[in-house]
Amino acid sequence: MNKKKLFRNKNLSLRLKFILLVILLTAILLASLSYLASSSIYGMGQSSQDISADALKDQAGEYLRQVTQDNAQKNDLILSDIQNVAENFAGYATEIFESPEIFVPGKYWDAEEHLFSGPEEQYLNSEEELASAFSPNVSGMNAEVARDHEVIAYLDFVVPHVQENSPGIVAIYLGTERDVTRYYPNINLGALVPPDFQVTQRPWYLSANVENNSERKVVWSPVYVDATGQGIMITAAAPVYINDDEFLGVVGIDVTLDAITFNMETAKLPGEGYFFLIDDGGHSIVLPEEGYNDLMGRSSEEGEFATNLTSEARPEFTSFLDNIATEENGFTTVEINGTELFIAFSKMDNTGWALVSVVKAENILQSIAQLQDEMHGATNTLIFGSILPMGFVILLIIIIVGSLLTNHMMKPVRKLSEVAQQVATGKWDIGIVDHGSDDEIGQLSNSFTFMLSELKKSRSELEKYSMGLEEKVDGRTKELNEKVIKLTESEAANLSILEDLNETIVNLEKAEKEIKEKNMDLKVAHEKLSSLNKDLEQKVKERTTEVEKLLLQKDEFIGQLGHDLKNPLNPLVNLLPLLEEREHDPETKKIFEVVNRNVEYMRNLVVKTIELARLNSPNTELTIDETNLLDEVNSVVEKNKLALEGNNMKINNNIDGNIIVKADKLRIEELFDNLIINAVKYSKDVGTITIDAKEDTDFVTVSVKDTGIGMTEEQLSHIFDEFYKADDARHDFDSSGLGLPICKRIVERHGGEIWAESSGEERGTTFYFTIPTGSKTK
Q1: What order of strands is seen across the sheet that includes strand 339-347?
Q2: Residues 455-511: pLDDT tens digits?
Q3: Prior bond to 185 cis, omega within 30?
């Protein structure tokens, strides 16, 4: 028996039907709620798992990309230092050849005294000397060759110091166009090379000469394995020019990659992750055994080096290797034999090499499987341990309560049913017992009583109404005749209304025509305005292109200016202290001291001018990282420890160790360095520097307060102007008047503000600046 037949069964009482209906509706409701709850819980669990997995993958990719980029920059900095050394040596070589009055040929090292002829007419020197000197037999010995030997010998004053402080440098050498070679350290070069060895034909020399290096840049050789067991090496070659355009020769520096290899081996990656290094041609430079297995599916062969990955790597890595050739950095995933690998890379600016990191996905995502098991267990416990038992309890309670309420509600209904049956037999005088309440059943009882009373009245009135019905029909007929007459009269009025309506339609059509004409005028005006806008946009684009071109020319000018100004000064900075140390005459030493101070001032002025110009350039980008403010300040204080102690300055660093800021680490160190040195310079013999920081919602406000000479309101208004000096009477060669403008640009490039306050002369000065805050530490 289905539900429809059950409720139509005449043998069932209303009470039983009501109870069954309540039970059925409750069961359906509980079943629906249980199903929805279960589906929602399972769906939420699956969604949370998917979201967690996706979020974890995104975070893992970004983390791996950042770690790879940081390590690439760290390794690139090693090569940048070598490049700077090569440029400085080239500049020093230029200086000694252009200054014969200072570097007198033969005065320090006489070719006739130190060189001797070998068994096959090549020229070499004793292996007891500081460096090897060599000329091949094809060049012979003449005055110009001898002069080259005697002048480049002055490198002896600089090279040992550089080799001592740069453990990665294996050899430094200079070759000239006359095939003169000077090699540090002394390896008895003449006994190792053929008698006709020409340095001008060596690959490193040819790569940096006039024909192949018109831009006069430092050129890096391909990576090679050193034959003497020094490991993987690379050579930096810097051209040497004298008198601006005369090509003299090339400085070469052999460098091992031990420092880069050490950084790659000690860098921390999740699980069994590793780094490898490839050059711009797709050849491996440093590739661990795991890399051979992952990329080529084999072990490395004995002595294998510079493997061509573009041709030997698995097909799964083809797209990734193509991206390395065209992009600066990136991240991807590759699946090898059922194992998913996370791979990130970042280019090294100096050489074009790419540093690549590889991590197994399972080492990062291993927590997802555990999360899924826990979610399924919790979901089943919730459904079968809580939701279903609670539903059965609720259903039982509803059945009991429904039965009691039904008995109470059906009692007055049964009484009304008995009265209705008596009325149906014609007993109109039966009274109804009052239910005693104002609910729906009480209202039904009262309505039934009122209905009986009204039925009696209606029966009496119906008889009276039948008698007067004929009279009403006659009167109604008369009224209808009168209305027909009035309707005929109203037809004339309707005709007049139609005429007025036609006139109104004509006027509307005329107005519509005028509106269309106005719309056409507006359309023409809109087209003219659109044309003007297009012309304006084209002019704006042309002007923008012109401005960008001027900015690019400015950047190129600044770069060339820095190269042209710094190169002549660097050799003087290196040489003057040596000459001053060798000089014993007090008056001459004073002259050297003055010259040295002025040269250092000029170099400092050039460096800071270029630095300020770079900060003003929109093409200069900052590397923003979250960094601990206290650590950065402590690092700057430690770096200036000697200057602070020498001037009896005390540092009070009150910065909270939990403050994190978003900043370029190098720029923020430069900012604190300028402010602290400024406080030292303008303080008396004894003073105190107090550093505080206050963290707000979006910014951290930092203050650097000193007890120095203070400033007036006039000085405060110009303190951040370029080349402005608060105390002109001091003639301070250590001050270029650019330190505080550089501070101002650094702060503004970070989106902050900088200002200074002072109560007056002899009352100290406080510098304030703001910098964006980072995330909170726990």
Answers
A1: 284-286, 274-278, 354-360, 339-347, 329-336
A2: 666 666 666 666 666 666 566 667 766 766 666 666 666 666 667 777 777 777 787
A3: yes
What angle do helix axes 586-616 and 440-582 make, rounded to 10 degrees? 150
Q: How far apart are CA 398 and CA 421, in angstroms?
A: 33
Query: Strands 687-695 and 649-653, how do they pair?
Result: parallel
3-state helix, strand, coil split of the chain in percent (to 5) is: 60, 15, 25
d(CA 445, CA 438): 10
Number of other residues whose CB lies within 10 A of the CB of residue 148? 26
C-alpha dihedral sign at 79, 85, 88, 89? negative
Distance between CA atoms of residues 569 and 591, nearest Å = 17
pTM (2 d.p.): 0.45
pLDDT in tens, 162-214: 888 888 899 999 999 999 999 999 999 999 999 999 999 999 999 999 999 99
CB 350 within 8 A of CB 83: yes
Asked whether the beta carbons of 180 and 131 are under 8 A apart, the reply is: no
Residues 6 or more apart whose CB falls under 8 angstroms from that of 707 comprise 683, 687, 688, 764
The residue type found at 483 is K
How far is 526 from 61, CA to CA, in rounded Å? 51
Q: What is the DSSP letter of 776?
A: P
